[in-house]
Here is the input.
Amino acid sequence: MERAELAAWLRLSLAPDIGNIGARRLLAAFGLPQAVFGQSVPALEQVVPRQAARALGEEPAALASLLETTWQWLSHESVAGTRHILTLADSRYPQALLDTEDPPLMLYVAGRLPQAWPTGIAVVGSRNPTPQGLDNARAFSRSLAQAGLTVVSGLALGIDGAAHEGALEGAAPGQLATIAVVGTGLDRPYPKQHLDLSRRIAQRGLIVSEYPLGTPPLAQNFPKRNRIIAAFGQGTLVVEAALQSGSLITARQALEQGKEIFAIPGSIHSPQSRGCHALLKQGAKLVESAQDILEELRLAPPAAADAVESQQPATDRSDPLLEALGFEPVGIDALVARTGMSAQDLQARLLEYELDGEVARLPGGLFQRVAAG
Here is the structure.
């Protein structure tokens, strides 16, 4: 992209009272952005309201600075081939987004673009998951990546991060492991705890944003980016989610796009399971393994499905204490009543299981059994 072309696209993206819908109307009427800005106000008024048409004739105050920052980000010699800006006019722009009602005018991408956009599966969930939720997200994503799918998520803390990690573990060399769709400018890594993860994703996957460089983590941007997560996936898996959750927004947008919704059931007592249970009541597919997803989407032949199934966690270890624990959070007093063991003996045994990764210690003095991944 030439600098003048980039300037025109940025100017269109910054134009007040235009938005994605107005921008697409202008492009459909006049062609590329440079042609849009060559039109008279009366001509523009045939496409957009008068106030917006007049505003198009004035260069936004932020344009010069944003152009310089973006040009430097895009063309720095140390990142050759790993930073891209895809516009609606670019042949590399993903068809999955073009098929949505509100495709971004511009996509900022970090990572090496694939020759063809791969088959994706969105994996989303709570920022405050249970230990079992984290393990599920990682295990499902690992298996889905092993089956050749690209895992799409939002790089948030909790389930998103575990999904990206699982995909990186499961993907074959050269495979596009995962796509992280973020709600900030790509020069503003967020959250800071995932800085190393974002670097690894950029090496073996893609980080994508519709927001200009310099955009901070604004609350309203994260629900909006969820439509992109949903679009990149042939289906959306919700691992854990509260009733008021951004993950349910992603699921709703995926449903509006005609995509399949999958949900992992959980404890009826856990707030983090209520969103999944609500989805299941509304017709989402209940899944217990990655194979369930692959079969529903018709993406795996029997041999591949068997291979993925073999990667699912085994949870049938026979042990009285583990059986008494179950998979729901439980306190020491309840375990004393269930097992007849003393609190001191229970604490010692639980510590052993915790060190072995079979039990997680939760806030409030609770413990929860974790399925071995």
About this structure: The two ends are 46 Å apart (CA to CA). Confidence is low (pLDDT under 50) at residues 302-316. The chain is about 45% helix and 15% strand.
